TrEMBL record:
Tagged with keyword Heme: no
Taxon lineage: Eukaryota, Metazoa, Ecdysozoa, Arthropoda, Hexapoda
Domain RCC1-like span(s) in chain numbering: 33-408
Cited InterPro entries: Ran_GTPase-activating, RCC1-like_dom, RCC1/BLIP-II, Reg_chr_condens
Full protein name: Regulator of chromosome condensation isoform X1
Length: 440
């Protein structure tokens, strides 16, 4: 009798021992209320179709117990305590992962995505969303875009419902840029897919990354391993994705390999040319990082001691280094936060945020549509405490910033997150000029 063939996953597992048992993922032990601020014209605030903009954080009416949040370009993703995914916002390209055409204002209301198992991590880009299941499978939906327009998520085009991506691999962490996805496998390998134009995939030449180079361009929609020299025998134990960049940490070392856009030194290399193959960043390798958040032209990073650093472009105050600062070509500790313990950070297109261990939220950078949550539309050049009636008595522990909106996760100071507020209190802050309705 001929031998039966093993499944692909079994074959992979039998040939090599598991490399990594644990990787640093967002803690899912604390439940919080979701608050939103900024632009809401596509429903990304989750406050209903009458709320087009908020200049201070307002509570999103969600009855589920939420443990994690992620702001995409014009949509928002929430992870519940029981491993379910809720989405709201722009669904033109399928970024919500659920049908919304058959129900009025469905994009403005948080709705559940149908997935086959519990989810332990979510990420989001400009027009895509990714979910990592507890068993190591990854599902994605939406699309990628490049300078020529829509690329599709797969060879079939846009995927408006969850699609299993990178099958036959056990993934332990995911990360999303604007239009690319990064995967870390249990064997310490880094896979990427999506738009390659700025070098963010780390597996193509500059010439081969342009869509006009038709030969093999579709391969970038299929996840593949990054181009690391085999002689280096590198394995990785952490990953982060920027808007147009990728960071990968070498196993049991501080070494950080980077690739992607570097026109303002935002990935820590001296040359400002885009980097298309993984290159050691001596600047980022100086520290032990807890979180690296890279936006379009700047990066905010949090080390294991709770210290926060900035590098990159200065405009709009996104670095938090003061109004008269220059572009930062080296990682610079943010002076205002030097004597404070930071536990979480985030950055949007031109915004930055820091959460302190005492539950306070600080923001800085561009404030044109209220995405900082200060109640004003002025830019902030140094970390500024974010206050609102809806935040009073709450302990912020996570923040995520998208294109022009920001999502906050905060627990009640008394530990009670399950008492729903009256609807008018959820949607109104009581602060003059805090919201703009559809009829305004």
């Amino acid at each position: 009798m001929p031998k039966r063939r093993r499944s692909s996953t079994a074959s992979i597992s039998s040939k090599r021992p598991k490399f990594i048992d644990h990787v640093s993922l967002p803690s899912l032990t604390k439940v919080g209320k979701v608050l939103a601020t900024g632009a809401g014209d596509f429903g990304q605030l989750g406050l209903g179709s009458d709320i087009l903009e908020k200049s201070r954080p307002a509570v999103v009416p969600i009855t589920h117990e939420i443990v994690d949040i992620c702001a995409g370009g014009m949509h928002t993703v929430c992870l519940t305590k029981d491993g379910k995914v809720l989405t709201f916002g722009c669904n033109d390209e399928g970024a919500l992962g659920r049908e919304t055409a058959d129900k009025e204002d469905a994009e403005f209301i948080p709705g559940e995505v149908n997935l086959p198992d519990r989810v332990k991590q979510v990420s989001a880009g400009d027009s895509h969303t990714v979910a990592l299941l507890e068993d190591g499978r990854v599902f994605a939906w939406g699309t990628f875009r490049d300078s020529h327009g829509n690329m599709g998520l797969t060879l079939k085009g846009n995927e408006k419902l969850p699609y299993e991506i990178l099958p036959h691999h056990i993934v332990i962490k995911i990360a999303s840029g604007a239009d690319h996805i990064v995967f870390l496998t249990q064997f310490g390998e880094v896979y990427t897919c999506g738009c390659p134009e700025q070098g963010q995939l780390g597996r193509t030449s500059e010439r081969g990354s342009d869509r006009n180079c038709r030969t093999g361009f579709s391969k970038f929609l299929q996840p593949a391993i990054i181009n690391v020299k085999p002689s280096l025998k590198l394995k990785f134990d952490n990953i982060w994705a920027g808007t147009y960049s990728t960071f990968a940490k070498v196993e049991q070392k501080n070494d950080i390999y980077v690739f992607g856009l570097n026109n303002y030194n935002q990935i820590g290399l001296k040359s400002q040319n885009a980097v298309f193959s993984p290159k050691l960043s001596k600047e980022f390798s100086k520290f032990k990082w807890n979180i690296i958040c890279c936006a379009q032209h700047h990066t905010i990073a949090l080390d294991e001691d709770g210290k926060t650093y900035a590098i990159g472009r200065k405009e709009y105050g996104r670095l938090g280094l003061g109004k008269d600062c220059d572009d930062a070509t080296e990682l610079t500790e943010i002076p205002f936060l030097k004597n404070k313990k930071v536990v979480n950070i985030a950055c949007g297109s031109a915004t930055s945020f820091a959460v302190l261990d005492v539950g306070e939220l600080y923001g800085w950078g561009m404030g044109t549509v209220g995405q900082l949550g200060t109640g004003e539309e002025e830019d902030c050049y140094e970390p500024t405490l974010i206050k609102s009636k809806q935040l009073a008595g709450k302990h912020v522990f996570r923040v995520s910033s998208g294109g022009q909106h920001t999502i906050i996760l905060a627990s009640e100071a008394n530990g009670n997150n399950n008492q729903p507020q009256p609807e008018n209190e959820q949607l109104q802050d009581g602060d003059e000029g805090d919201s703009v309705s559809a009829g305004a």
